């Protein structure tokens, strides 16, 4: 069992408790494969041939265990059975109480992180800054092209927080070398997956080379706390089905298992284990009751999380604008540039995907 002890997971099963106070778990327990409700630990295969990565399984295309399920044998057949669903608590009507709960949960989660052999992935936004604040003696890393938003934001935030920042400067040769490695790690060659995973992989690779075994990341904050533009006015945004901010946020949380599988496989392939304090159960419990206006408004996203950061982080870091990693690092832009230079023009269907596939085929 990875991520929690067997006693805790067995009790969670017995009590149908989806959030038993862990940071996620997966593994074999009492003859069943078990994966936590948010899928924070990937899990693949069958009862006789399983692992935390597809590479650990003899089957060429092992099937992932769905989040919140056990995979077990019933009547001679291997079946997936849902045992946990994410709670849907009543909306908190007391704004002060809601923000206090988020602040306590986040502070407890980030300060509880063991900082031995640890580095922090740091973009200069409030998510990674909160993680970094919990481990004040830990070096911070950012990856991006020299003129990337994330590099500039990380430098500004690191200076404001008096932190050691190490910049992984990217170039075209680095991207071309890493694309096949990332595709192998994620099992995907689509441009979106690869462009998201590349900066994570390259930061993790540098972190591992510098002698660290673990990388703390801010994953989960955007999903839990209303960080996406598509949740701001969901009734008029066709990217979500929900019509309320809270409903759209729940919808986005549902994408976490697939995203976490991608990120975990990427980081482990680069040689580090991910640490995700903003996805611990205590933080999830504090986020779920938040009302619409403490998630996202037309003027501000991640409202409650930013309130939790006030007085702990510098004001400019609390309010810092954040870009998705593939855009903030300029990896997406430069992959497109490389694709066009290689003859894959924008008029072609999936031109960056085709370029990625060509690099994989040529590796």
Notes on the protein architecture:
This protein is of the alpha/beta class and 363 residues long. It has two domains: 77 residues, no CATH class; 237 residues, HUPs (Rossmann fold, 3-Layer(aba) Sandwich), CATH 3.40.50. Helices cover 43% and strands 12% of the residues. It contains 15 helices and eleven strands. The strands form three sheets. It has a five-stranded parallel beta sheet, with helices on both faces. A four-stranded antiparallel beta sheet has the order 1-2-5-6, covered by helices on one side. It has a two-stranded antiparallel ribbon with strand order 3-4. α2 runs antiparallel to α10 and α5 packs across α15. The mean pLDDT is 96.
What is the gist of this entry?
With 363 residues, the protein is an alpha/beta fold. 43% of the residues lie in helices and 12% in strands. The strands form three sheets. It has a five-stranded parallel sheet with strand order 9-8-7-10-11, sandwiched between helices.
Name its key features.
Rossmann fold, alpha/beta, 363 residues, Asparagine synthase C-terminal domain-containing protein, nucleotide-binding, 2 domains, 4-stranded antiparallel β-sheet, Asn_Synthetase, Rossmann-like_a/b/a_fold
SSE topology sketch:
Blueprint: H1 6-14, E1 26-29, E2 32-35, E3 44-45, E4 50-51, E5 69-74, E6 77-82, H2 95-111, E7 118-121, H3 126-134, E8 140-144, H4 149-161, E9 165-169, H5 172-186, H6 191-209, E10 214-216, H7 221-225, H8 245-253, H9 256-270, E11 273-275, H10 281-287, H11 303-309, H12 315-318, H13 325-328, H14 331-341, H15 351-362
Parallel strand pairs: 7-8, 7-10, 8-9, 10-11
Antiparallel strand pairs: 1-2, 2-5, 3-4, 5-6
């Amino acid at each position: 069992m990875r991520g929690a002890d067997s006693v805790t997971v067995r009790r969670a099963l017995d009590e149908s408790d989806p959030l038993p106070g862990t940071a996620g778990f997966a593994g074999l327990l009492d003859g069943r494969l078990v994966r936590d409700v948010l899928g924070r630990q990937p899990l693949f295969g069958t009862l006789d041939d399983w692992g935390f990565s597809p590479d650990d399984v003899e089957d060429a295309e092992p099937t992932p265990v769905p989040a919140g399920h056990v995979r077990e044998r019933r009547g001679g057949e291997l079946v997936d059975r849902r045992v946990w669903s994410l709670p849907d608590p009543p909306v908190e009507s007391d704004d002060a109480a809601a923000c206090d709960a988020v602040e306590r949960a986040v502070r407890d989660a980030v300060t509880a992180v063991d900082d031995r052999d640890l580095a922090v992935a740091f973009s200069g936004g409030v998510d990674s800054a909160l993680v970094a604040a919990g481990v004040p003696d830990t070096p911070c890393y950012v990856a991006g092209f020299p003129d990337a938003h994330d590099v500039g934001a990380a430098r500004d935030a690191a200076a404001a927080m008096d932190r050691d920042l190490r910049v992984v400067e990217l170039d075209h040769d680095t991207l071309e070398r890493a694309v096949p490695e990332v595709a192998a790690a994620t099992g995907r060659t689509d441009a979106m997956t690869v462009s998201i995973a590349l900066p994570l992989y390259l930061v993790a690779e540098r972190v591992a080379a510098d002698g660290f075994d673990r990388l703390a990341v801010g994953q989960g904050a955007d999903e839990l706390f209303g960080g996406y533009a598509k949740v701001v006015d969901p009734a008029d945004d066709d990217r979500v089905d929900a019509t309320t901010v809270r409903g759209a946020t729940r919808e986005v949380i549902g994408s976490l298992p697939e995203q976490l599988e991608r990120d975990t496989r990427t980081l482990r392939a680069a040689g580090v284990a991910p640490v995700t304090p903003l996805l611990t159960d205590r933080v999830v419990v504090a986020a779920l009751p938040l009302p619409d206006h403490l998630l996202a408004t037309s003027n501000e996203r991640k409202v409650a999380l930013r309130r939790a950061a006030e007085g702990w982080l510098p004001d400019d870091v609390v309010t810092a604008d954040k870009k998705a990693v593939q855009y903030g690092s300029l990896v997406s832009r430069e992959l497109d540039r490389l694709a066009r230079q290689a003859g894959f023009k924008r008029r072609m269907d999936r031109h960056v995907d085709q370029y990625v596939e060509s690099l994989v085929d040529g590796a």
